[in-house]
Amino acid sequence: MSLGWIGLSEAVPFLGLTLVGGWAADRWDRRRLCVLATAVSVVGALLLVLWSSQSKSPSPWPFYAIQSLSGLSRAFLRPASQALGTELVPRQAYGNAATWRSSSFHFSMVTGPAIGGLLFSLSGATATYGVVTLLLFGGLLALFQVHPPKPNPGPVAGRATGLSDGVKFVLSNRLILSALSLDLFAVLFGGAIALLPAFAHDILRIGPAGLGLMRAAPAVGAILMAIVIAYRRPSEHAGQTLLWAVASFGICWVLFACSRSLALSLLLLTFSGAVDNISVILRATLVQTQTPPDMMGRVQAVNGFFIGSSNELGAFESGLFASVMGLVQSVIFGGCMTLVVVAVVARMVPELRRLKRVTD
User: E strand or H helix at 231, and its extent?
Assistant: First the structure.
């Protein structure tokens, strides 16, 4: 349940403010918003260092409060940074840029958890949080080197500029809405990343270093898939590919819940990351190519709302269901629900099934 509270602590401020963050990204300088949001993350990391060093057995509640700072930061950082990317890259390169951005993100997701688990097992929490602080500060410095060649387009005359405009745009576009809904419910039910510490401790009994490998495995698969996608022609059956990718994601988690072998568990986690990255890249390209530049921040905020709901609320759902149904049973149930969601979306949105190329 504590793993669930971690997710909820981040979800509440993120979901509560992400539409505000998207509105701000369409009104103000996006790079400056990224700098300010990252600075909040640096402050949160420093607080983790200070609190973890105060006691051998600190209370978990301050950690939940500090985690909420991460949600506050992401509410503004995610839409601003996603929209900033459209200022840095030509429109015709959005798809390829999404692939490489995903690759760099998942490379960090490979090295971060693996090194973090090893560092935690060797040096403890305080040293690990110290390294996190330094890395975040390095990211903050890097943002000062970003200089967009074209400015934030700002509001266009005659077009609504309210907080809810991104929501209305997404609801009016069935392709974007169906793609976001697939991700929302697939990860909400099928993704059990938040429960990996429990699997490492109770099922596989592998310790912090093994947990680091498990956390890194999905990102390994995502990187390998991103490399394949980057050097292949765009899919000629994008809609069907998206549906099969999400269904495969759910199957991976059902099999993972039944596994008692570390090697098999790592293989399944790797494959889950690979198929998940297919949907990530297709969804990101779809959103970028079909959204007007002056609305990009608000639409990316809605995109972030869906993703944040699935990730952070999914962590709470995973912890809650595991505490009620049992660890293994809850993950099997979530994977099966993912397959149900895929079937429902495929039935209700035939234009997604028929979608050939995501940029069309």
Answer: none
Task: List, in sequence order, the alpha helices (H) in the chain.
Answer: 2-27, 30-52, 61-88, 94-123, 125-143, 165-172, 174-185, 196-198, 207-230, 238-258, 262-290, 296-308, 314-325, 327-348, 350-354
**Cα–Cα dist 115/112, whole Å:** 5
263 exposed, middle or buried (CB, 10 Å; 0-12, 13-18, 19+)?
exposed
Per the CB < 8 A criterion, the answer to whether 167 and 24 are in contact is no
- In contact, 296 and 26? CB cutoff 8 Å: yes
Q: What is the DSSP string of 274-326?
A: HHHHHHHHHHHHHHHHHS-GGGHHHHHHHHHHHHHIIIIIHHHHHHHHHHHH-
Assess contact for 305 and 18: CB atoms under 8 A.
yes
- In this structure, the number of other CB atoms found within 10 A of the CB of residue 106 comes to 25
Residues 152/29, Cβ–Cβ less than 8 Å: yes
Q: Tell me: the pLDDT tens digits for 89-101?
A: 777 776 677 777 7
Least confident of 4-13, 298-307, 330-339: 298-307
Q: 2-144+162-354 is classed in which CATH architecture? A: Up-down Bundle (1.20)
Mean pLDDT for all residues in the chain: 80
Report yes or no: 234 and 358 within 8 Å, Cβ to Cβ.
yes
Taking Cα atoms as reference points, which of 312, 342, 354 lies closest to residue 183? 342
Q: At residue 161, what are phi and psi to the nearest 5 degrees? A: -125, 25
